[in-house]
Amino acid sequence: MERHSWQIHIEGRTHAVEARNGTLRVDGRPWKGTVERLPDGRWKITDEEGQVLLAARKSNGGWEMVSGPFSAEVTVRSPLDQLRDTLRPKGKSRAASATLKAAMPGLVLKVMAEEGRAVEKGTPLLVLEAMKMENIIKAEGPGVVKTIHVTPGQAVEKGQPLISFGE
User: What domains can be seen in the chain, in order of their start residue?
Assistant: First the structure.
């Protein structure tokens, strides 16, 4: 069973989109229509009667959605993007007191961090299997590992603390 999911941010609102076995759900509700990739790289999205709802094309690191005379910039975040965002300390000041939390359920395969050890940007902290992918979680900035909340082989749930940083 093939399954893909994304969070789509449009004009301050977030929508959950899931594609599974040829069906599409938006915010948990079935959506009928088509999504077609065009030869020029754009995507065409139609409703169940075949009327074009909008066209989409990559733009400035996101997507531009166009419907008639209207357009909107859209950000699409995959589960892996969401996981990276959640685990990423934001700058030096926050890194000193940040707690990295799991963005989605997964399995801890390996812990490379050590309590009390200073880390620099890019230092591997742990390997987390999520969505059948092994993800090496690296430090996004300097800090000191205060507490490691997980062990190899441990299953984690969304929002569960993984590593805390302190002084």
Answer: 3-77 (3.30.700.30), 79-166 (2.40.50.100)
